[in-house]
Amino acid sequence: MRYQETNLSVINSVNLGNTGRYLEARNALLDLSKLHPKNNYIMVNIASLCFVMQDLDHVEINLDQFMRNDEKTYPEFYQIASDLYIRSACFSKAIQCMQRVTNYFPDDESSWGMFAQTAFESRDPENAIYAVKKLLAINPANYEAKVLYANLLSSKGDFEHSESILMEVFKVAPWHSVACSVLSKCRKFSDDGTQALALFDKALKTDNPNETDDIDAEARIYYAKAKIFNDQQNYDQAWVEASRANAIRAKNTPFDQAEYSRFIDQIISQFSNIDYAANSSNSEKQPILIVGMPRSGTTLTEQILSLDDSIYPGGEKRGLDYALLMAFKGNDYLQGIGSANREQTIELATRYYRYFSAFSNYKGDRIVNKVPANYLHLGIFKLMFPKIKIINMQRNPLDVSVSIFFEHFSEMLNYTNDMSDIILVYKEYRKIMDFWKTQFADDILDINYQDLTENYEENKQKIIDFCGLKIDLDSQHENAKNLVETPSVWQVRQGIYKSSVERWKRYEKQLKEFTYILDQT
Fold it and tell me: pLDDT tens digits for 86-142?
């Protein structure tokens, strides 16, 4: 039974928001909430309007009121609330929300599915697996739940179990592109990739009866095929498949090289005259950033750091985006950074730590964030945290470019679909890192990926000393227990993985026009 609002004043107020009159709608609903404090339709709509207006603090306040109302009739309200909690970085509260709805409605399949996804996004794999198992007990044929289950198992390093679950999925959903992607990452298919390739070819030929609007589905399968052919050392065919994938994505999400170069120049211009001493926060926190191009060894480095109990491995969660949104209310911070003051940078630092501390698995006191593109924002990080440590991961430009070309990234990294775009971004990355080193070189440690794999103990000690950590040199990164949520999910669970060094030479004939970059670096 779905909720149907009958109060005409409430309906009209919600309709105001649907026409873009958000402030007017919110104020009208706030007035109505005083008359009808137990009307949860009003509460979730107020929270939704606050989210649209980027007022995340009041999203949380109104959702908390909804939770106090203790809804026991309509599970959809909890699902909306949980989604808004997640979007507002209130991860633990989102979990509590879904725990309540599944307690009140234990047979509601959609609530268990939402619980599983909520826990996954909240970095709570135990609750995610618990919810998936409950969902599958209600509906054993739910293949989406099985794909999520397989993905969770992979993130925890249980690749064999993950693969067995995916094989069940392909029997009932042979078109499933995410299943193809997860399977391709479960192991290295050196000699036995025939079955996987057959499954992927069938996926390409089978229409999805659900008619989803997933524009990346076909590309995702081609990336999976490219991974298998690369494992089998059939490099010509691997390049063909990766090129097919990237052609689809480049069409869907084009990249503007000139605009990106202007953006880099704008950052350098804005931060050239910043008075860090006068405007930095007074935070004593010492977070660690791992930056560089994607596929440059950031995950391996995070695994090393996470061997220290004081470290919280934050992965590629976008804490900075949250902090900037809260402090600058959605405005471009580059426009206002010249007039930023200590009060603002203190707020940014506080919001950043609040974001990560809301995750279910938060521990320690030093957050490691490895969003590679944070190299764009080192200036604001330095203002937020004067004692920050920055590890800059460097890698052979063609090696890193090939690795990027073979991987499926989010649409925000739309330069990753064309080799010329990747090379351009690599140059701009080097340019801006050179600039940051003129500002605070002592806070930046360069680590070369090839040297890390060849002289692991020496570089491990260098990282430990630079960050001031206490790590037993005999402890091994592959034994770290933190979640891995990146394309390196399999490699990083192995020992030192050297086969990616000079990977570009396997594709030398496809890279002829780009080899000049080696001379420039």
Answer: 999 999 999 999 999 999 999 999 999 999 999 999 999 999 999 999 999 999 999
**CA 167 to chain centroid:** 26
Taking the CA atoms of residue 219, residue 220, residue 225 and residue 231 in that order, the dihedral angle to the nearest 10 degrees is 130
What spatial distance separates the first Cα and last Cα of the chain, rounded to whole Å?
A: 64
**How many Å apart are CA 242 and CA 205, to the nearest integer?**
18
Q: Could you read off the pLDDT of 342-368 as tens digits, one per residue?
A: 998 999 999 999 999 999 899 988 999
H/E run at residue 391? strand 389-394
Residue ranges of alpha helices (H) inside 253-341 are 257-271, 276-279, 298-305, 319-328, 333-336
Place of tokens 């804490």: 319
CATH number of 268-520: 3.40.50.300
Short-list 367, 370, 357, 383, CA closest to 436: 383
Q: How many CA atoms lie within 13 Å of 369's alpha carbon, on the beta-carbon side?
A: 23
Contact 515, 396 (CB under 8 A): no
Query: Which of the four CATH numbers 1.10.10.10, 1.25.40.10, 3.30.110.10, 3.90.700.10 does domain 141-252 have?
Result: 1.25.40.10
Closest CA to 55 of 15, 27, 94, 31: 27
